[in-house]
Amino acid sequence: MTKQEATNSDVAPSTAGLDASGPLHFGRRRFLGYVLGGATLMAAADLGLMPERAAAAVPTLPSIPELYDLNDLLTHAAAPTANLITININEDGTASFALPRAEVGQGITTSTAMIIAEELDLPLEKVIVTLAPARPELLFNQLTGGSNTTISTYTPIRVAAAIARKQLLEAAAILLGDTVGNLVAKAGVIEAPDGSSVSYGELATKAASPTTEQVEVELKEDKGFSIVGTPRNRVDALAAVTGKKEFTTDLAIPDALPTMVCRAPTLNGIPLAIENKAEVLALDGVRNVALIDTGVAVRADTFGQAIDGVRALKVRWRDGPVAGDSDEDVLKGLRKAELPLPTLPGKGLARTVGGDFTFWFRSNSAMDTNSAIADVRDGKARIWSGLKSPIVAQQAIARELGLKDSDVEVNVVQSGGSFGRRLFYDAALEAAKISKAMGAPVKLMWHRADDARAGRAHPMATSRVRAALIGKEVVALQQSHTSVETDFRHGLGDIISATAADLPAGVGNLGFAETIFTLTQEVPYNFGLVTQTLLETDQRFNTGSMRNIYSPDVRCANELVVDMLAKDAGLDPYEYRRKMLRLGVVRRVLDKVAEEGEWGRSLPSGVAQGIAIHKEYKGASACLVEIDTRPQTVNRKVRNAVTGPRVTRVTFAIDVGLPINPRGLEAQMQGGINDGIALALTSSLHLRDGHFMEGSWDNYFYTRQWNTPPEVNVIVMPPSSDQPGGAGEAGVAASFAAVACAYARATGTVPKEFPINHGQIAFEEKPRVPPVPQSPTDGLSHTY
Amino acid sequence: MPRQSFILNGETVTVDVADDVRLLWVLRDLLGVTGPKYGCGINVCKACTSHINGKAFNPCAVPVGALKKGDEVTTIEGLPDTAPQAQRGPNGLHPMQEAWLERDVAQCGYCQPGQIMAAVAVVRRAQAENRTVTDEDLDGIRNICRCGTYTRIREALREGEQAMRG
To answer: Looking at its record, which EC class is this enzyme (chain A) (predicted)?
Structure first.
């Protein structure tokens, strides 16, 4: 698979207004929706509604994502869905909405409540957003991924809210004896010029319609926004800081007792037999023991007793498919699979500049480990779990249990982080199998050691970048990315098979990973003929995306080579990027960080700045970091910790088109910065003898307080479009690349593998048998 | 079955459970107090951070039998009651919780009860030493946040510190 782009196309991409320098062009604002028949007012819209995007007039050949990117694919996959999402107006004056997406920390319940509050003229705290259970009738429109939620739901949700507001006004006009045009709706109350008023709560039943009717409605003008675009706190913040926010393992489902699984000493090893079942069943608190295909499950009164049971089990195993292998073996396999780089143009005349980079396995384990509650009894199944693809989960569980889809109820629970994990339903499916085997409800929680070792990983990859230069001119750039297979079997595959045939620009019949790669990767520089390719190999691992898919690795390799080209051109990294960038939207964020981050300021030897850009999710970002690699910093001591070089200051600018909640957006960028630092400096998995060594957070070095930058400045650019872009993953790629570039400049050596400390094992591996460590008992001697 | 008795969030509780069951499971699985979260079970992630007799500790690493009858365990649920009335904020919460709201620290929120309990202990430790919280104190906080909310944690902790002086 190959994609090519031409030079000198500083054209606005098809995203309306994204790159417009003049006044913004606003799309049409009139839409059709429905008032549904019912006792209280229910307004509905088709989740497939989208504003018309301007047809792209493309003079030359921009890269594919500029015309049609992953978010267009996800959004258009939803279009054929004729099913509706509804906003209810309740008699207590609140509005409620069940969002068919998963909240995992990215802030979509807050931004969605803001969009509804805005269009309905209701205070934010009167909008209640919950998560919808699996709704198979929504087909592809219940997948949370690709930072697509707000992009695809913004207009449909506004339409439903606008219809509710219109109905309320019409009911109020009758009640107050005036015309709709004279009434003013504000903060949930509709007032007539004579001072008489009526609240939404009082109107909830009066505005209800006995039958379902189609209604045309006009959306608010963006200029009148008083909530959208203003910084707001999360709607679940109070619950979070008081311990009341409920995650899967906090739910009190009757008889769903704590359950854990004893797993194999090699990755994906298979249990053959339990040798001491009676002995384990006799342990204090242990209720059930059952063999399933992924291990041996123990159900007990407490998780502590389930851990005791798992540790006591003696199980015969068949080795998993990577038994005996270490990560160097996997790397050898990747190198062998690498395709020869195509010949660069200008043969004989051209010089090449470039590099080969390795990205090791990384863990996307969230704080809230894989967990699910399952109650499979009497031909029915009820599931609770943090799920970003609940429809696929429902179908897979039904198939596994031999039940009809409609007999499997799948409830979506808020979860403690996702980072790619919850696109999959590993825990939900496993819990269903265990509940069936035991004939009892289970609350399955993966031990941290399971989550770290047997959970999903971001695949190992190599990225080779070559630029061809004639004189000082870059005439071509090619990037060849070779990766362990990235698992997309969570439903994205279905979407792609459904829509691939309609893809423009000849990307139709590519494999889904290649399609995703093609739809997300862009090189926004004038580098002549640009070619980026992906090859995936080796399907033996549990993989998935990790807060972004390919972009952090791809951009890191790419931006390191951009720095090499800058050096070759005798320009500093900022000036060179400025000169070579094709798109104004990227240049503006680059300029912003250079200015706010004081690019070029004087720093001591061993301390340096790095700068990088990224364009994805209908937006653009730039990051400027300062890193301290002086020995006194690198060698600083923190007990049981990895220290190393410290990023001391970060300036980050993001343009998402229309920011819904700048405070939430800033938070997502701050988080993405810490992810970028981890990818560059400290975080990787080590495969040794068929198993990942990392068993917990004292082995896997995600950014900690002693690594985080003391100074972080995130700039949210003013609206550049009337449509919102994605946020959850948008902060990682530019941050990773900027840290790598800064490290190369501070040390004078361009790193060739990431994270840079992968070669040093800074911990002692925990035993593989038993597979989970016992909890310590000395907690009272570590109080402070 | 041994009867375990201690003070939890101001009230005496009694549970029938073996001595070696770690306090985290007694709180979560038997008493239904779910503010302290599981993140590792080996006292490294600190998601379960709570207080014992006013000091931070991790119940995943304490067998319930090690508690004495008069020991006072405070989880996030009981934190507001430990603040003097005058220090409580607009939501009636502990000033550190109010600072967390003010700064909108939480993202997924899973680690945040533990982060707040750790922050209160860090401030109390500095206060007991007649000093203010330093950058080194902040760098030394071991609680992991996989969403990467560290920047706002640092800001909120300093804001909470101010309010805890009042």
So the answer is: oxidoreductase
User: B148 vs A672: CB contact, 8 Å cut-off?
Assistant: yes
User: Of the candidates A724, A721, A719, which has an alpha carbon nearest to the alpha carbon of residue A17?
Assistant: A721
Residues of B in contact with A252 (CB under 8 A): 32
Task: Answer yes or no: do A236 and B42 touch at CB < 8 A.
Answer: no
CA distance B44 to A696: 8
Tens of pLDDT, residues A249-298: 999 999 999 999 999 999 999 999 999 999 999 999 999 999 999 999 99
What is the CATH topology of the domain spanning A328-335+348-362+456-754? Answer: Aldehyde Oxidoreductase; domain 4 (3.30.365)
Indicate the pTM of the whole model: 0.93
Sorted by sequence, the CB contacts under 8 Å of residue A313 that are 6+ apart come out as: A262, A274, A276, A280, A289, A296, A298, A770
Query: Is the domain of B10 the same as that of B26?
Result: yes
Checking ipTM against 0.85, whether it exceeds it is: yes
Under a CB-based contact definition with an 8 Å cutoff, are residues A383 and A397 in contact?
yes
Q: How many CB atoms lie within 10 A of CB A522?
A: 27
Query: DSSP label at A173?
Result: H
CA distance A735 to A621: 9
Which of A 432-451 lie inside 8 A of B, CB atoms? 445, 447-448
Cβ-Cβ contacts under 8 Å for B155 (sequence gap 6 or more):
B103
For chain B, how many structural domains are there in total? 2
> Would A248-262+270-318+370-445 and A328-335+348-362+456-754 be classified into the same CATH topology?
yes
Does one domain contain both B49 and B117?
A: no
- How many whole angstroms from its chain centre is CA A582? 27
Q: What is the pLDDT of residues A105-145, one digit of tens each?
A: 999 999 999 999 999 999 999 999 999 998 877 766 788 88
Question: In angstroms, rounded to a whole number, what is the distance separating the alpha carbons of residues A615 and A656?
Answer: 10
Least Cα distance to A241 among B25, B54, B65, B101 occurs for B101
Question: In 3D, which of A109, A101, A115, A111 has the Cα closest to residue A145?
Answer: A101
Mean pLDDT in consecutive groups of 10 residues from the start of chain B, 166 residues: 94 97 98 98 98 98 96 98 95 98 98 98 98 97 98 98 91
- pLDDT higher than threshold 60 for residue A510: no
Domain that holds residue B140: 83-165
Domain with B101 in it: what CATH number?
Answer: 1.10.150.120
Report CB contact under 8 Å: A705, B40: no
**Model pLDDT, residue A160:** 93
Which CATH class name applies to A248-262+270-318+370-445? alpha beta
Which range of A6-10, A419-423, A535-539, A740-744 scores highest in mean pLDDT? It is: A740-744
Q: How far apart are alpha carbons A23 and A254 in whole angstroms?
A: 58
Which is nearest to A652 in space by CA: A585, A592, A576, A575? A592
- What is the reported pLDDT for A144? 82
Picking from B56, B78, B100, the residue at the C-terminal end of a domain is B78
Residue A512's pLDDT is 67
Nearest to B59 by CA among B79, B83, B75: B75
| Interface residue A366 vs chain B (CB under 8 A) | yes
Q: What residues contact A613, with CB distance under 8 A and at least 6 apart?
A: A524, A559, A577, A581, A586, A589, A590, A620, A621, A622, A623, A734, A737
With 60 as the cut, is the pLDDT of residue A493 above it? Answer: no
Dist CA A684 CA A751 (whole Å): 15
The pairing of strands B3-8 and B72-74 is parallel
B 77-106: CB under 8 A from A: 77, 80, 91, 93, 97, 100-101, 104-106
**Are both B92 and B143 inside the same structural domain?**
yes
- pLDDT > 70 fraction of chain A, expressed in percent and rounded: 89
**Which DSSP state fits A239?**
H
**Residue B52 maps to which CATH number?**
3.10.20.30
Say whether A243 and B35 touch across the interface (CB within 8 A): yes
